[in-house]
Specification:
This protein is of the alpha+beta class. It folds into three domains: 2-174, Beta-Lactamase (2-Layer Sandwich); 181-254, Helix Hairpins; 262-411, Histidine kinase-like ATPase, C-terminal domain (Heat Shock Protein 90, 2-Layer Sandwich), CATH 3.30.565. 47% of the residues lie in helices and 24% in strands. It is built from nine helices and 14 strands. Helix 2 (26-39) packs antiparallel against helix 4. The longest helix has 79 residues, at 145-223. Bound molecules: adenosine-5'-triphosphate (ATP) and magnesium ion. Adenosine-5'-triphosphate is lined by residues 313, 317-318, 321, 348, 350, 353, 361, 366-369, 374-380, 404.
Length: 412
């Protein structure tokens, strides 16, 4: 009879291990193991613990409380040495131990009843990765040597799955990190190629453009009085050449032939100066500017002109995407990552950036405003300037779904 019962339990264990192997994460595996341990294998109170980075300690995972409810116990951490049974198992004197009549305790160590208790090593085939503990506090059915065998088997099945899932998770994290670094390398390589090309082309084109501009100015003076049509044509040429010049200037900035001049600056003041330079556009498109500046913000070592250029680029992007008016919010604050950082968030209430182009906005010459005067260098230059300051920039859609949030971080 007992053998038949054991065999049935083995079949259930097999089914459970199949189900557990499909859980998507270590966290879900641990939770589900306790759920199924109770519902399918008939365990009474149980809990799972894993060996900490410091092997003298174990940390909680999931367990069943004194009322039979499953709870997360990941905040719990105790020394293995405090439990003589666990100590014996950790010394690999046994894989599991049954104590037939002992005080049963809660997580704080307080006795909450008397009964039988089994502790089994969660064994992954190579080492003990944790402990599974079960007792009869809730149903009071005494635990037997058969139960001990079975708990040991379950703990070992669970241990194998646990290690597999952990390795899977570590592998996935490593892959994601690798992918991120690869993307950064590709981006850096692109920038280098474009940077080289840009400076070459810009230098070649800059001087001829200057000569053309001088020529236009000279001719404009000559034909002024006599011929209105010729004068209008020259003015159009002048505007076109100026535009070409602006692009060349952008390319030169991008290729960093210009050196940075670092001085200590108040970021709030830099932002005010940049706002002043786009005040015409702000007025023209009825943009409401909301400033949430942190008072007495620590100074940052930056190139004032370049930093102004960064803010102008971001403000113009925001303004360009709010042609019927909207709100431009600028917030400054400090934060601590691995270093103290001075930050600025710039938010607009425009349409936001479609998800499929979000990862392209920093690409050189990427623009959705080609016919509207966009060159697609604004954010490329912005990012390069921020990187030269060893800062950080992120562009994302706002959580409320209305508009874009650009976050800048400068080192204090
Ligand atoms: N605030 C914003 N709202 C919506 N889309 C934006 C915003 N900022 C940037 N973008 C998108 O990112 C693209 C690239 O921006 P970027 O500033 O590099 O170039 P651009 O504004 O098109 O041209 P320019 O070189 O004149 O700045 C834009 O064309 C636009 O599609
Ligand atoms: Mg732009």
């Amino acid at each position: 009879m007992a053998e038949e019962h054991f065999e049935k339990k083995l079949r259930v264990l097999h089914e459970i291990s199949n189900e557990l192997s499909l859980t998507p994460s270590v966290h879900d595996l641990c939770c589900r193991a306790v759920e199924l341990g109770r519902s399918r294998l008939g365990f009474d109170r149980m809990s799972t613990w894993f060996v900490d980075k410091d092997p003298k300690y174990i940390v909680g995972s999931f367990g069943v409380d004194e009322k039979g409810r499953i709870r997360e116990e990941t905040e719990e951490r105790v020394a293995i040495g405090g439990d003589p049974v666990m100590k014996q198992i950790s010394a690999e004197k046994a894989h599991s131990i049954l104590c037939p009549d002992v005080p049963l305790r809660d997580n704080s160590g307080k006795a909450v009843g008397q009964g039988s208790h089994i502790i089994a090593a969660i064994w992954n085939g190579k080492e003990i990765v944790g402990y599974l503990s079960t007792d009869n506090l809730l149903k009071h059915v005494p635990l037997t040597e058969h139960d001990r065998d079975f708990v040991e088997l379950f703990a070992s099945t669970f241990g194998h799955l646990y290690s597999l899932k952990r390795t899977e998770e570590e592998l996935r994290a490593a892959y994601d990190r690798l992918k991120e670094v690869q993307d950064q390398l590709v981006q850096a390589a692109k920038m280098e190629v474009v940077g080289g090309l840009a400076s070459g082309v810009a230098h070649e084109v800059k001087n001829p453009l200057a000569i053309i501009l001088q020529g236009i100015d000279y001719l404009a003076k000559k034909v002024k009085a006599k011929d209105e049509n010729s004068h209008a044509a020259l003015m159009r040429m002048r505007i076109a050449v100026k535009k070409a010049n602006a692009i060349i200037k952008g390319l030169l900035d991008f290729s960093f032939t210009t050196k940075l001049d670092f001085t200590s600056q108040d970021l709030n003041e830099v932002i005010e100066a940049a706002l002043l330079l786009v005040s015409y556009e702000i007025g023209k498109y009825h943009i409401e500017v909301v400033k949430e500046f942190k008072k007495d913000i620590p100074e940052v070592k930056i190139d004032k002109n370049k930093a102004e250029q960064v803010f102008i680029n971001i403000f113009l992007n925001a303004i360009n995407h709010m042609p019927k008016g909207g709100q431009l919010t600028i917030r400054t604050y400090t934060t601590v990552t691995d270093k103290k950082m001075v930050c600025a968030d710039i938010e607009d209430t425009g349409p936001g950036i479609p998800a499929n182009i979000l990862d392209k906005v920093f690409d050189p010459f990427f623009t959705t405003r080609r016919g509207l005067g966009g060159t697609g260098l604004g954010l490329t230059i912005t990012k390069s300037i921020i990187e030269m300051h060893k800062g950080k920039i992120t562009v994302e859609n706002k959580k409320d779904g209305h508009g874009v949030k650009v976050s800048l971080m400068f080192k204090e």
